[in-house]
Amino acid sequence: MLDRPDRLLRAILLLAAFAATALGAPPNVVFLLADDLGWRDLGCYGSRFYETPSLDSLASSGARFTQAYAACPVCSPTRASIMTGKYPVRIRVTDYISPSGGNQPESWSRNTAMLPSPYSDRMPLEETTLAEAFKENGYATFFAGKWHLGSEGHWPEDQGFDVNKGGWEHGGPWYGDKYFSPYGNPNLADGPPGEFLPERLARETARFIAANRDKPFLAFLSFYSVHTPLMTTAALEAKYEAKAKRLAFSGPRWIREGFRDARQVQDHAIYGGMVEALDSAVGTVLDALAANGLERRTIVVFMSDNGGLSTSEGSPTANLPLRGGKGWMYEGGIREPMLIRAPGATRPGSVIDEPVTSTDFYPTLLELSGLRLRPDQHLDGESMAPLLRGEAARRSPLYWHYPHYGNQGGAPSAAIRAGDWKLIRWYEDGANELYNLEDDPGERYDLSALLPEKAGALAEKLDNWLAEVDANMPSRNPAYDAGKPSGRLPPDER
Question: Long-range contacts of range 348-352, CB-CB < 8 Å, 24 or more positions apart?
Fold first, then answer.
C-alpha cells in the first residue's frame, strides 16, 4: 500500500496531467508490439548475438522491466488483454485465432489426452478498447501490422482505430511474397517489389506521426516480426551467418522439453536478421518522434506478445536462463521484454523488478495521459504509473489460463504467480508444479512435494480465480489412443 505522502504526490501528478490535458497538450502514445520475441532477444536483456541498438537506446532513456508478462503463451489472447485490460478468459479469447477453426474441439484431429476448450474467434465489439478510450478523448488513432483478433467486421477500424494499415484476421504474413512485397494483404497496398514488411510498417507509422504532430495521437505499431515464416534480407542473413561462425557458441544446443527439443543457443542467422530488422524499424519510428519535436510529449511502450519460439517451427531462438518458450506455461513462454519511456514519469535507465502483466497497459496509459480510468473495463489491469515514478507498490497475484494445445508442445494448463512463488496446473492429469522464481528462474526444481502447504495455498487461490472468471475448460478426448504417437510431437517425429 502507498503511504499518505505517496498518495498525495500521486494526486498532484495526476492533477498536473489533467491540467496539461485541459491546456490542450496531452501526451501522445506510441505502442510497439513485437510478435514472438523472446525475453533474452534484445541486447539490453543480455543477448550477445542479436543487435538491437534502437531498443537498447529506448531502455537507457526509459524503464526496463525484468519481470513483465504476457497474459498468455500465444498471441491473440495477449493482444486482447492489451486492448481490453482484461484477462483473456473473461472474453473467451483463450487461444490464437485460427480463421479455419482448426484448433476448435469439433475440428480436433490430433492424438491428445484432452480436447481443447471451445473459445471465441473474435474480440467482442462490446468491449471499450484502449483505442476507443483514447478516441473518445479526442485522440487520432492509428494501427499498423498484425491484428489477429477477428475476421472482417472485427478489424482495427471496427475497434476504435481511425487508420488500419495491414491488420486483418491472419496471424502471419502468409500471402504474396510474405515478408516482402507484394503482400497479398487487403489492408496494405503493395509497395515496390521486394519492399521489406517491417520497414514499410515503420514508414507508415512515421507518416502518421508527422501528419498528426499538432494533435494528440495513439499510434499502435504491431509488428508481424519475428513470427514465422523465418525470412530476412540476404545482407542481414549473411551478416549473422558470419557472426555465428565467429562467436562459435559452445555448450549443448538442445535439451528435451516434454515431447520436444528446446533450443539452448542463440545463433540462427535468419532470425538474427529478423530481430535486427525489427529494431531498425523501431528506430525509424523513434526518429520520426525526434524529427517532429515530439519526444518529450510522447509515451513509448515496447513489448512482445509471448515468449520466443524455441521448441517448434524452426526453433530459432533460446530463452535461457528461462525454461521453455512460446506455447508453454514456463517462464520462457510468458515472460517478455518490456520497455516504457514516459516523459515526466520514468527515470532514464531505471530497472523495475516488480511483476506486471499485459492487462496493466490499459489503466497505465490512461493515467499517464491524464484520462479518466475505466475500472469496469480494465478489470484485471493495475496501473504501472507508480512503479515508473519509483514508488513502492506490490501487485496482486498474476493468473494465466490456457486450456489448449499450442503448436509448440505445451499442454492445457493454468498458473498463478504470487510474490516469488509460481504454481503451474496441468489439466491433463491435475498435477501441480511449484517454483520459487527468485531462487530458480529456470524452473528446474519442482518444490510441490517438499512444500505441500505452499502448493496447496496457491492451488486454492488458482481454483478460486478460475471459478470467479467461469473459466472455459478442456475435456477428455474419447478418441485418444495412448498407444499411438502423441499429438504433442512435431510432425517430423510422428
Answer: 348/60, 348/61, 348/62, 349/59, 349/60, 349/61, 350/62, 350/63, 350/64, 350/388, 350/390, 351/63, 351/64, 351/65, 351/66, 352/63, 352/64, 352/65, 352/66, 352/387, 352/388
b/e burial code for range 400-411 (CB count within 10 A of at least 16 → b) = bbbbbbbbbbbb
Element housing 392 (H / E)? none
Identity of residue 389:
R
Angle between helices 234-247 and 269-291 (to 10 degrees): 120
Instruction: Give the phi and the psi of residue 435 in degrees, each rounded to 5.
Output: -135, 145
> Which amino acid appears at position 458 of this protein?
L
CA distance 137 to 142: 15
User: And the C-alpha cell for 89?
Assistant: 478468459
- Grid cell in block for residue 418: 504470487
Q: How far is CA 336 from CA 75, 188, 319, in A?
A: 12, 28, 10
- Written as tens digits, the pLDDT of the chain (494 aa) is 344 444 444 444 444 444 444 345 799 999 999 999 999 999 999 999 999 999 999 999 999 999 999 999 999 999 999 999 999 999 999 999 999 999 999 999 999 999 999 999 999 999 999 999 999 999 999 999 999 999 999 999 999 999 999 999 999 999 999 999 999 999 999 999 999 999 999 999 999 999 999 999 999 999 999 999 999 999 999 999 999 999 988 888 999 999 999 999 999 999 999 999 999 999 999 999 999 999 999 999 999 999 999 999 999 999 999 999 999 999 999 999 999 999 999 999 999 999 999 999 999 999 999 999 999 999 999 999 999 999 988 789 999 999 999 899 999 999 999 999 999 999 999 999 999 999 999 999 999 999 999 999 999 999 999 999 999 999 999 999 999 999 998 765 43
Contact 156, 131 (CB under 8 A): yes
In the numeric block, the cell 496509459 is attached to: 365
**Could you tell me which of 341, 369, 300 has the C-alpha nearest to residue 30?**
300
Which SS3 state, helix, strand or coil, does residue 271 take? helix
Cell numbers 528435451 label which residue? 256
Provide the 8-state DSSP code for 116: P
Q: What Cα–Cα distance (Å) separates residue 309 from each residue in 208, 324, 407?
A: 32, 9, 10
Q: How far apart are CA 190 and CA 180, in angstroms?
A: 9
What are the φ/ψ torsions at residue 64 (nearest 5 degrees)? -110, 125
Strand pairing of 140-145 and 63-69? unpaired
